[in-house]
Specification:
This protein is mainly beta and about 250 residues long. The protein is about 0% helix and about 45% strand. The protein has no helices and 18 strands. Strands 1-2-3-4 form a 4-stranded antiparallel beta sheet, with no helix packed on it. It is elongated. The chain starts with about 50 loop residues before the first strand and ends with a strand.
């Protein structure tokens, strides 16, 4: 085989044919392929969001694939709570008697609403104007609904994003009242006269904290700090107000 000198001049670097012969045998096989269903009629759901157990422990409500589902704990049967396809359904929460569920809906065209659903009759009541809402919860007597209004941004429209904070609205519908400019995870006290709220902040560039406060609904400016933690990011108060649970270990 002739060799080409890389340092040769252009005249010596002219292309030339090199004669050679190769004897070889190649085996051709079919490519290995696996069938992957793109949109099967049925499949196992791997992610359940906002799982909530009814007060009597007999039912579980959750959001999966963008819609609310109700599971009977005794039979294991699961059914969708609604049959609509106009909006997605998130953040379900049972009433204290387990007969109703409040949740928020979302549609890119109409944005979000807070909704109350009667589980027996299927009657639904829309409680808010368009906006971005999360974490609705019913008062113990079922007369009020507390929720959080957020600001739009990134992938969502900026419209209807003013006056964010924690709100309370009559469960039968009416004008919503902002009771706090900040806070998440609202929970009513046992008497329904106050709200527990979770707030997070930073005490320095590297130190963070989460605190649980109680807000008197009769005097919205009156707040009491009940707990503060550098590691907790979520507090949960028992329905009777006697116990406090919290989650730690997740980064802020």
């Amino acid at each position: 085989m002739a060799r080409v000198n890389p340092f040769a001049s252009k005249a010596e670097d002219a292309a030339r044919e090199i004669a050679f012969h190769v004897k070889d045998t190649r085996e051709m096989r079919e490519a290995v392929r696996f069938e992957t269903p793109v949109s099967p009629d049925q499949f196992d759901v791997k992610q359940l969001r906002w799982v909530q157990t009814s007060p009597d422990g007999r039912q579980v409500v959750y959001s999966a694939l963008g819609y609310l589902h109700l599971r009977d704990q005794a039979t294991g049967q699961v059914r969708r709570l609604t049959q609509q396809k106009d909006h997605f359904e998130y953040y379900p929460s049972f009433s204290r008697d387990g007969k109703e569920v409040v949740y928020v809906s979302w549609s890119d065209e109409e944005q979000g609403r807070v909704r109350r659903l009667d589980l027996k009759t299927g009657k639904e009541t829309v409680l808010t104007a368009p906006g971005k809402y999360v974490e609705p919860t019913l008062s113990p007597d079922g007369r009020q609904v507390a929720f959080v209004k957020l600001r739009g941004g990134n992938l969502t429209s900026p419209w209807n994003g003013l006056e964010t904070g924690v709100y309370v609205v009559p469960a039968k519908g009416g004008e919503a009242q902002r009771v706090a400019k900040s806070g998440r995870q609202p929970q009513f006290t046992a008497d329904g006269q106050s709200l527990y709220l979770t707030r997070s902040g930073a005490s320095s560039e590297v130190d963070f904290f989460t605190k649980l406060v109680r807000l008197d609904l009769a005097y919205p400016g009156k707040e009491t700090v009940l707990a503060t933690s550098e590691f907790a990011n979520q507090f949960s108060v028992s329905p009777d107000g006697q116990w406090l649970a919290w989650e730690i270990g997740r980064a802020h």
